Amino acid sequence: MQKVKFVIPHSRPTLGPDEIRAVTEVMESLHIAQGEKVSEFEQQFADMHGAAGAVACNSGTAALHLALSALGVGAGHEVIIPSYVCTALLNAVNYVGATPIVADIDPYSYNLDPADVEKRLTPRTAAIIVPHMFGRPAELVRLLKFDTPLIEDCAQSLGSSIEGRLTGSFGELAVFSFYATKVITTGEGGMVVARSKRLAERIRDLREYDNRDDYKLRFNYKITDIQAAMGLEQLDRLPELIHRRRMIAAAYDAALAALPANLPTRDTGHIYFRYVISAHSTAPTVVRRLKMKQVQAAQPVYKPLHRYLGLQGYSGAEAAWRKAVSIPIYPSLSDDEVQRIINACRSTCGE
């Protein structure tokens, strides 16, 4: 009797007994809200990135909102963001009342195009949000030359590096996400890392509103010790998780090199949060064909921001949206599943 092959999901968390134990210990202590575990999680993040401080919060979007607020960005300011990205960046800019200025991307790296950013700089530009898309570091050296505050969006790049220096340690601020299927997870959650103590204190002040002598607009963006306990275990495992991602990426590189498709740009600092290919067929067609072969793939960005906003141009983002397909590459994939994905890609992208 032939063994039934189940669908390989596009993403899934990599959790184990250590995470279960850590969460259980917190629950048994009855100290389940924001407390010592959150402080420990923040300190480890700050130390890891050589930062003056780190502030945990309940999502990556909240982290973006806090970062912009701490920089004093608001009405009358412009914030440059890439088009080929999720709407969290657009939302955060709108939350603070600033004007989003959408820039194009490099269609090969999928990262913000510094040349296009330069064209869009004005005296009103208050910040540039720079995602490191799919785990590949953006061109920070060029972007830093613009002398405009950079917020690194490391939601997909925790542990990636540029010449040995971690992403998240270059910008004025950096934000991280710990959603269920991110590089590490706390279920939901985020972090802001600040280079200056002043900014870290401002973010910490904005994170919660209760028991204050003065009134100003603050938020309820706290995270719990339950989540932080899981995050601490995941952070300990980060080298192992990244190593597995890179091993799978190397297997894909070798096995898919002959296909009529563009594979991810090689970079020693890449952590391969996503493995994105660009085939000769349209992305929806490739996704549909892979699904028929029991492999769940996805367009890694649902829709570019310029399309939501009715803007014209953006050839890099358009090309990525039409062609880019993300195939599974999470650490809990078995070797058998990796081979099934390779076989499915070979037959699909070779058609």
Describe the structure in your own words.
It is a single chain. This protein is α/β, with parallel strands linked by helices and about 350 residues long. The protein has 13 helices and twelve strands. Strand 2, helix 4 (about 90-95) and strand 3 (about 100-105) form a beta-alpha-beta unit. Helix 3 (about 60-70) packs parallel to helix 4 (about 90-95), helix 3 crosses helix 7 and helix 9 packs parallel to helix 13.
Layout of helices and strands, plus pairs?
Layout: H1 17-29, H2 36-48, E1 53-57, H3 60-70, E2 78-82, H4 88-95, E3 99-103, H5 114-120, E4 125-131, H6 140-144, E5 150-153, E6 161-162, E7 165-166, E8 173-177, E9 190-194, H7 197-207, H8 225-236, H9 238-256, E10 261-262, E11 275-279, H10 283-292, H11 305-308, H12 315-323, E12 324-327, H13 335-349
Parallel strand pairs: 2-3, 2-4, 4-5, 5-8
Antiparallel strand pairs: 1-9, 6-7, 8-9, 10-11, 11-12
Spell out the helices and strands N to C. Answer: HHEHEHEHEHEEEEEHHHEEHHHEH
Order of strands across the main sheet: 1-9-8-5-4-2-3
As a whole number of angstroms, the C-alpha radius of gyration is 20 Å
- Percent range for β-strand residues: 5-15%
Unreliable runs, pLDDT <50, ≥5 residues? none
User: Count of DSSP E strands?
Assistant: 12
Distance between the termini: 30 Å
User: What's the CATH H-level homologous superfamily of the largest domain?
Assistant: Type I PLP-dependent aspartate aminotransferase-like (Major domain)
CATH class of the largest domain: Alpha Beta
The average pLDDT score comes to 96
Name of the CATH architecture of the largest domain: 3-Layer(aba) Sandwich
